[in-house]
């Protein structure tokens, strides 16, 4: 029996990576609990386990008193003197009564076993938590152990990982025995099953794959600035080189696309746009909208809002299927993007110019008109927006004249109401917080109707000829897309 206990402890220590001293302590606590079940919960029990021989000694300790209050802990002088070790007992002495493990039978072994199993589980969970709580965001590799209702249990080095169905790439299949890579996103200490939660849809998974595949990223020569991803369909990743001699995009693509293609295969054919990062937000946004060519980018306000003008034949390409291209560009850059076709932008500018009616149209007289222009009031709208007290301050214009000028301007506007400017349709406004539409997330095919697939361009690779834009300059080059 002693050798069996030693062998069992050695096996648990080896397989579960649990401290042997903790196991011995747990075994002693379990046996002491079994003794207290028979002799009382307050009994003073001493259990010793020999790590060398595997022998177990159990003893019950009682104190000699005049009046017994707790029989499990105390006995009288008369009772003590009935035992060999207490023939000369007096009040205050402590008597030790050796016990044999056999008298407790299976109950003692079962109790010790339950306590041991519970402590081993707790120790194992503590070890897993300590090991993986520092590995959140780290890429791990394991073997598929079980697939249950779409959820996958993955056998890792010293523990199990849980890959929920929601964290798996759409249309991907995992079979028992397959190797799988994922990124750790959480360690749930309260979970009943595996504590290590894995993901293959998280943007960090794509980031770690590039770090593993591209040496320049691992060596911090090339930096990944941002990642925007719709798992299973399309991703955009922005990169920057700290060494001007190293092409960031070319490093990620690899010779003939070898590096990025291996990542695409890992992601089940997910398309990846590699975008060169720029400190200039307008340049970065125009690059992020690749493969569409951008004609103009203007910052609308200080709330990270931009208006992007593209040629009419580039609008569908800039939007992408279900708005995917523009949506990912907004997430990648962190800017709210309004997409406008060149023809609509021209109409809007024409209407704005038409609404700026010059004060000469009011026929106020040459002298009065010149006074207004000298004061910076050149249009009818500016005249209406100027307070009466400001008009009176203009040399040569009194209070009555100022009132007359405003009345004439109001009558003109009433007779010639301005046409409101054309606003961008609501569905052409894209924000970083926008969620993927079901259609866009499910279909990785072409961006939009008529959009031709882009080629994979590597370092030193030839670039297909591009048709000149309909109007204005093309977007900065350097973007890559993988299909």
What report would you give on this structure?
The protein is α+β, with helices and mostly antiparallel strands and 483 residues long. The protein has 17 helices and 17 strands. It has helices at 2-16, 20-39, 77-80, 105-132, 203-213, 215-218, 248-253, 258-266, 281-288, 315-319, 324-333, 342-355, 366-374, 380-385, 388-392, 399-415, 438-442; strands at 44-49, 56-65, 74-76, 94-99, 139-148, 151-155, 160-163, 179-187, 196-199, 222-230, 234-241, 271-276, 294-301, 305-310, 336-341, 429-430, 480-482. The protein has a five-stranded mixed β-barrel. Strands 1, 2, 3 and 4 form a four-stranded mixed beta sheet that branches. A hairpin with a 6-residue loop joins strand 1 and strand 2 (56-65). The protein is elongated, with a radius of gyration of 40 Å. The two termini are 65 Å apart. Mean pLDDT is 79; it is low at 442-483.
Give the helix/strand layout:
Layout: H1 2-16, H2 20-39, E1 44-49, E2 56-65, E3 74-76, H3 77-80, E4 94-99, H4 105-132, E5 139-148, E6 151-155, E7 160-163, E8 179-187, E9 196-199, H5 203-213, H6 215-218, E10 222-230, E11 234-241, H7 248-253, H8 258-266, E12 271-276, H9 281-288, E13 294-301, E14 305-310, H10 315-319, H11 324-333, E15 336-341, H12 342-355, H13 366-374, H14 380-385, H15 388-392, H16 399-415, E16 429-430, H17 438-442, E17 480-482
Parallel strand pairs: 2-3, 7-9, 11-12, 14-15
Antiparallel strand pairs: 1-2, 2-4, 5-6, 5-8, 6-7, 8-9, 10-11, 12-17, 13-14, 15-16
Helix pairs in contact: 2-4, 5-8, 9-11
